[in-house]
Write a structure and sequence with these properties.
The protein is α+β, with helices and mostly antiparallel strands. The chain has helices spanning 2-18, 21-39, 49-143, 244-247; strands at residues 163-169, 178-180, 184-190, 201-207, 228-234, 251-259. It contains four helices and six strands; from the N terminus they run αααβββββαβ. The strands form two sheets. The chain has a three-stranded antiparallel β-sheet with strand order 1-6-4, with no helix packed on it. Helix 1 runs antiparallel to helix 2 (21-39). The N and C termini lie far apart (133 Å).
């Protein structure tokens, strides 16, 4: 009888640990009923005080297990609820973040488009103003008093207001004469700074310290373009070659008249 009661209580105790709190209560009721029926049997006089103490210990242990299990279930339920709420909040935050990013991207796109539109408008306006300014300057240039008049030139005449006089010198110490033939020297003169758009009329004269009056070609212009011209000087009696022209200070002074537009 003692073995039967103790073993039955242990089995019930294991079942109670695996059951829910409600089922545990029902289990205890069944357990108490079984104990009660056992005590009412003719063999109840066999149960001694030690068996009753063991039974009480088992019951007490089972009750503690039920309480602990109930607390554990409560805590787990609370944690699951907290995780559910946290997950829901995270999803809401992600949706809000996505909405914010999309709004910022749309705003940025709108801002860039507006700035590009404003920039293009500004550029168009500046180009129009520049064109107007150039046209006005050209009109003023054409309408200005003609201080220079070109009667004829190497090419078809340009606008009267575009006539320009440009002059210069190659310099006494900076003229680079090139030996040419037996007693002649050659020189190419750059006039690109004048800005002519048509071949100008060029007048030249060689200036220096010695023997120019014995030389020929001092005013002859060759191969004139909008940017340069050439000349040749011959000194049959006083040879200008081998650096003599430079030592004598020979240089070219020139005046050119032409159109710049």
């Amino acid at each position: 009888q003692h073995y039967y009661i103790t073993n039955n209580l242990r089995k019930n105790n294991q079942l109670l640990l695996m059951a829910s709190p409600v089922n545990m209560i029902l289990g205890f009721m069944l357990l108490l009923a079984s104990v009660s029926s056992t005590n009412n049997s003719p063999r109840n006089n066999i149960i001694d005080e030690d068996d009753v103490a063991d039974l009480k210990d088992l019951l007490h242990s089972s009750m503690q297990s039920i309480i602990l299990l109930n607390d554990l279930v409560t805590k787990l339920t609370e944690k699951v609820a907290d995780l559910t709420i946290s997950f829901a909040d995270t999803k809401a935050d992600m949706r809000n973040l996505k909405t914010t990013v999309e709004e910022e991207r749309a705003n940025l796109k709108t801002s860039v488009e507006e700035k590009m539109t404003n920039l293009m408008t500004t550029v168009d306006s500046e180009m129009a103003n520049l064109k107007t300014s150039v046209e006005e300057d050209m009109a003023d240039l054409k309408a200005s008093p003609r201080e220079v008049m070109i009667v004829s030139g190497e090419e078809e005449a340009g606008e009267a207001g575009c006539a320009r006089v440009c002059s210069g010198t190659t310099g006494r110490g900076t003229t680079n004469w090139i030996d040419f033939s037996s007693t002649s020297v050659n020189l190419s003169v750059d006039i690109s700074d004048c800005g002519f758009v048509k071949v100008p009329t060029v007048t030249i004269s060689v200036e220096g310290n010695f023997y120019l009056w014995k030389s020929t070609g001092l005013a002859a212009v060759h191969d004139t373009t909008t940017t340069s011209f050439s000349m040749y000087v011959d000194g049959p009696k006083y040879d200008p070659q081998d650096g003599n022209a430079e030592s004598w200070g020979w240089n070219v002074e020139w005046i050119s008249v032409g159109y710049i537009c």
